[in-house]
Design brief:
The chain has seven helices and four strands. The protein has 222 residues and is α+β, with helices and mostly antiparallel strands. It has a domain of 153 residues: NADH Oxidase, CATH 3.40.109. A four-stranded antiparallel β-sheet has the order 1-2-4-3, sandwiched between helices. The protein is globular. Bound molecules: flavin mononucleotide (FMN).
Length: 222
């Protein structure tokens, strides 16, 4: 496994510009609406400069106490993807038992990963800080939330690049830690499949196939 010890990012060019135009706002909403969880990928590689730009998201993402408690492992070797897939397949087998009757049949028909097809896998791990972190006294989970919020930004940035990203949570963290030779303190949090999408999705795939539907937000005003 190759390890980059320096940041893969050159840093954003120029000074921050916070003067969003109407076109910027529209573009952002286009990306927000276009973002989908993808499980079907074309074999085309992800150009290295685009991957590098995407990983730059971690250098602009928020994190509690500026802790940046994450580690990213880029997975491209087919044998490693196969091993991650084996972990997924085991969890999927276990999860199907939680559904009964027709629901279980429908579960079996779902495509829930693109681990082998996606040209790139990104394992994002939570690295608990070794020192006290500002902002985590009453809510230690804020550290994990920080990792998740960075992933969300990555998801949007990937969409803006015309790439598809699929989040796979049906994996066993300890297995992934061993397979990818991560330090003991790394807690694998998300395995992300990245590549050019093979399917255009206008709504969540789980909605298209009739598993569930998106519900509107209910807001309480007090
Ligand atoms: C934390 C998290 C874990 C997820 N894990 C999986 C997964 O293991 N397999 C899968 O097919 N989709 C997974 N998804 C994708 C969701 O199913 C998807 O976001 C949801 O159906 C809405 O679809 P959309 O993202 O296209 O809007 C996950 C999403 C999140 C946020």
């Amino acid at each position: 496994m190759r390890r980059d010890t320096t940041s893969p990012v050159d840093g954003p060019a120029g000074t921050p510009d916070n003067t969003a135009t109407e076109a910027d706002r529209d573009a952002l909403w286009r990306v927000l609406r276009a973002r989908r969880d993808h499980r079907h990928f074309r074999p085309d590689p992800v150009p290295p400069e685009i991957l590098k730009r995407l990983l730059g998201v971690f250098d602009v993402a928020p994190s509690v106490g500026l802790s940046q408690p994450w580690q990213v492992t880029v997975v491209t070797r087919p044998e490693l993807k196969e091993a991650v897939y084996a972990s997924f397949a085991g969890v999927r087998q276990e999860e199907r038992e939680r559904f009964a009757g027709g629901r279980r049949e429908r579960y079996d028909a779902l495509k829930l990963d693109g681990i082998r097809e996606a040209p790139v896998g990104l394992l994002v791990s939570f690295l608990p800080p070794q020192e006290a972190t500002l902002g985590t006294t009453s809510m230690s989970a804020a550290l994990e939330y920080s990792v998740v919020s960075a992933i969300t930004l990555l998801w949007l940035a990937a969409t803006a690049e015309g790439l598809g990203l699929g989040w796979v949570s049906l994996v066993r963290p300890a297995e992934l830690r061993r397979l990818l030779d991560l330090p003991d303190r790394a807690q694998p949090l998300a395995y992300l499949c990245l590549g050019y999408p093979a399917l255009e999705l206008w709504e969540p795939l789980l909605q298209t196939v009739g598993w569930d539907t998106r519900k509107p937000l209910e807001v309480e005003w007090k």
